[in-house]
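LOG
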Amino acid sequence: MTITQPRSFTRRLARLALLAVLSGIVLHGPLPAGAQPMGGFGGPGGPGGRSGPSEVGVMPVTRADVPVTVELPGRATAFQLAAVRPKVGGEITEIPYEAGTLVEAGTVLFRLEDETLAVELTAREVAVASAQAALEGAQATVDRYRKLSGSGVTQADLESAVVLLAAARAALGSAELQRDLAELALRRTEIRSPIRGIAAVTPFSVGDTVSEGQSDALTEVAQVDPIYVDVSESRARILRHQRSIADGSMERFDSGGVAQLTLETGETYAQPGRILAPGTQVSATTGTIPIRLQFPNPERQILPGQFVRVTLTIGRINAFLVPQRATSRAASGDLTAFVARDGKAVEVRLSEVGTHENAWIVTEGLEDGDQLILDGLSNLRDGAEITTVPVEIDEGGVVRDAEDAAATTDPAPETAAAGTSARAPATPSDGG
């Protein structure tokens, strides 16, 4: 059953609610400074709100020669890598090397059982001696027949003796060859490192039997000083850089260390590298070409297979360095920033050609001496009235007043970690 309240009762409740609101305003007094009323006009947050310029932090920008760099992921590759396999068969009797250590070319890594091959060599040496004796006998016969030629020895006998002498020489040569092969096989029971490098752990142990030409390597030896790093770069970006150099907008970088490494720990590798040669074929799937670089590696900080990041310096360009924190992207995708001009915030559109550290490389959109707004950007609108305070960005990426930055050596840990401004937040303008 639905109970309908009289209309007069409803009006009475509305009056009581209004009186309660008015009583609260009288009892509690006016709103505190800075508080905003709930809805309505005339408050600081509404259309009729607080007027006056907003305080912003600015930094002057000027053109300078900026290195144009690209950062690419890469992977280290050994300068030389030798897979060690046996050239004769036999049982492993000794593994004299220590895995992970530097071995010189010719260092013995494995020794195989050699008794069988030693016996084989002895037999071959006996065969050589026998062939040598046969040759000497054949030579003596020929010499004697030549002396007796025409007196008891026919020409046919002499010719036969000469043929036998030639056969004896061939037999001796064959015996000597077999002896040399047996001697070589015996030497190969000592398996040596073909290059200078780091010897890997072997999957074999003493007592294992190996065979000549087996597919499984006994170990690997890698030369890692110097070391290669392979990266891939977009062919389209390479063409754009080449066009910039050709039209004079970018100067080619020709000094020695054009490549810098960043290790997996984030540490910058101390030794600069150089480009050996770019690839000659574009990948059909990625549109990139391979590039091989070479770095000195005396301390073996880089090992084959290690992932690193490579910063390549392509050239120099005359441009502005605009901190990324001072910019934003418009709905159209254009890069924008605010500059202070004649007491107002002016939004400008920037043309960028890449990044350098934490800044955009900007070629158009700014003028020398422009006051770039770094701090107080929240809710800032084009044309808003502003007052400016000089600021700087310290090494930790923290925005500080210029006077504070000169007096402060280390930023507060909490502020530096957050990457926020060390200034008190400026009150944003109403949009002007």
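LOG (cont.) second protein
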Amino acid sequence: MRKRFAVGQQGEVILLALVFTLISLLAGHSLSRAESADSSKIPSAHALIAEYRQVEVASVSDALEQITGKKMYMTHRMRPILTAKFAGYARTVQLKRDEGNKDPEALTGMLQSIDDGSTDSVYVMAVEDGQDIAGMGGLMGTAMAARGYSGAVIDGGVRDVAYLRKIMFPVFATGIVPSTSVHHYRFAGAQVPIVCDGVPVHPGDIISADSDGVVVVPIAEAQQVLALAQQMDFKEHSMYPVIEQLKSIVAAVKKFGRI
């Protein structure tokens, strides 16, 4: 009698173990599906940049200031060599003054950093005291274009402008000059934090640029900034016909709460 009872207990234990195992598997499957659903809402790196290419830089700048409390736009000195709109991930480069150097490898790292980039990259260069020194020209621009770069932002000068315009490669720079950095500068690092026209830039931050200027979006805030910038764009673009219809910007601002 006791033996049959023991066997019955053992059977119950086995049955309970099977039930718990089944519950765990089902729960794990549900969790996996939930995680998959959540991850599907997160845009890929390429998709995120594609979204940023659709929003106006002014809206991105406003959204950044509201969310972070910081002004992350470059000054009026940073000008495009041709009208362009682009966005991409920052690939940072630093050049330091080294007047009269004869080292043939002094700028090799600068060139290698271009070859290490790819689609959706934006070449962001800080040239120490470099407003009258060309940080890049036609050859570098051709290499970037061939590798699918979105554009370049140079805190310094740019040259070979006619050729860069010919190939339609977008570059923002603080000046147009015929000079060279060879024998005057030395490569000081790539994919390092830099300051470009007064704005901190870290590798992988999003660079958003159009006719209004250049903005740097810290990657940690990129999705939140994008969502708010899209809302701002929608409101502003909706306001234009209302202003025309009512002939009143005051009424439109009151209606949409956006200026």
